[in-house]
């Protein structure tokens, strides 16, 4: 797997947003908020699925855009929470996409696109949108065809984190729909006295 180094990402950022428990988000020249643990790749989807699998993780794509207040909130409120980020980093590789960007993307079907034409092809129109890919490279189809789950928009901590948990636990293969899974986890959190904002 060809991988651009983290130092390249560090060079691309220009504004520190803040610190929470040692986690730092930055604002890149493209206007997107960055996490130091996001993975920078050549955006070849099949290759990225394989890399994630080799590391015992899953691939998640996050679509954002310049000036997106919901993306900003996601970074400042959710991705600054160690409970959220520790879980994601342990189980997922997250690759950021610019909804209107021009970086090259290679779809699962081999079509060469840009970030913005990929977003249109796959039908993603909201930011942030997080797309969860399968463990293994599909034999054919596109990202939209192959995604096991999609989370469009901004949510509270437990909805957000539970979606990552549900995908990691392969809830999409069970009879327990995400909403039922989420409700069960919320009830457990309530019983433990840990219920947050949602």
Automatic annotation (TrEMBL):
Residues 53-136 form the Thioredoxin-like fold domain. It comes from the Bacteria. This is Thioredoxin-related protein. It comes from Roseibium alexandrii (strain DSM 17067 / NCIMB 14079 / DFL-11) (Labrenzia alexandrii). The lineage of its organism: Bacteria, Pseudomonadati, Pseudomonadota, Alphaproteobacteria, Hyphomicrobiales.
